[in-house]
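Quick illustration, no need to memorize.
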Amino acid sequence: GKDIWLCGGGELASTLAIEIDELMLKVHPVLAGAGIPLFARPFPQIRLELASADFFANGFLFCRYLMKAVR
């Protein structure tokens, strides 16, 4: 029943995807040709509901999504 703040890579996020109830994404205005995927392997379809979004003058975007399982 307590809140847990999880920071990790795609492998950890994929393993726990069905347990995560909120997803916070930080979007930086940079294109990269490679990197760590957000989710490293398949998992059940999850619907995202935008809870809030903050846009900063330097182009940085911070979005908070509620994750809803698709049944």
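The CA atoms of residues 10 and 40 lie 5 Å apart.
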